[in-house]
Amino acid sequence: EAKGRGPNNHVLFEPEMQAKVSRRAKLEGELRGAIDKGSIGAFYQPLVDLRSGDVCGFEALARWKNEDGEFVPPNVFIPLAEEAGLITPLFQQLLRQACEAARSWPEGMGLSFNLSPVQMEDRMLPTRVIGILDEVGFPPERLELEITENALVSDPDLAAHIMDSLSSRGVQIALDDFGTGYSNLSQLARFRFDKIKIDKSFVAACGTDERQEKVIRAMLGLSRSLHAKTTVEGIEDHRQLAHFVSQGCDLGQGYLLGRPMPAEDVLMYLSDRRQVLATG
Ligand code: C2E
Ligand code: MG
Ligand code: MG
Ligand code: MG
């Protein structure tokens, strides 16, 4: 980068900047259009009980195929939706769709759904969520909302209020990507989580680094002492799976256990899996 820099470096970089701005504007326009048309959907990834091996729920992961037929990753379009003020309509649409899909799953199967940090600044969030659950007829106890540490930073009082009011209606709350955000451990104690999800970046290092393993063990201990269940995300191989089973981690998620899949594959996946278990 630095090699093109001159005394007027903003002038030198202008075309590149402009290209970036216009790409972004184009993507934002396409995103707006996709939300209007309701063409953004979700894939569903299994959450597995590490003691029994049973699937106990699925996490909804937003999927957008743009006009060129390419998947735009959620790490790109979710922040874009936040900045463009589109997160609430997108959220409402996706949550409604996910609850409708999850209604056809076996009794008791949970649905996990991600919230963006900016949604924790929306006082109306609990009302919106409960409104959708009522409308679709999905029990609040089967819904789990995942929030990241960063969602608790900007207005912790409001975040705590929103979480309490969702909890009081029976909605479960999970802390996502634990260990990777701006969490302040002294603040963490004031929020009540039903579940803590250990980020996949910790998993990749386990079994190779003794100090990393100690950190993981401490996170599991913290989670347990706060009476939260622990999920580990990003399990890709048997060694990692065995490690977290032996550590007493409650739930697992990752490509080894099941990849995110379209809604129409979920029931088939569950019945195939049951057959595999039954036949050994
Ligand atoms: P997340 O909530 O932590 O979701 C887990 C991510 O890890 C997903 O990426 C999933 O596909 C991926 N993953 C699962 N198992 C494995 C594995 O074994 N190995 C590896 N390398 N990755 C694995 P995805 O779907 O690209 O989503 C990325 C992030 O985008 C999510 O992270 C979440 O923060 C956000 N996101 C996705 N859908 C939504 C949504 O509907 N609303 C909001 N606000 N955020 C969403
Ligand atoms: Mg998540
Ligand atoms: Mg996560
Ligand atoms: Mg993550």
From TrEMBL:
This protein's UniProt keywords: Membrane, Transmembrane, Transmembrane helix
Occurrences of domain EAL (ranges): 24-274
Protein name: Diguanylate cyclase (GGDEF)-like protein
Natural source organism: Pseudorhizobium flavum
Residues of the full protein shown: 242 to 521 of 521
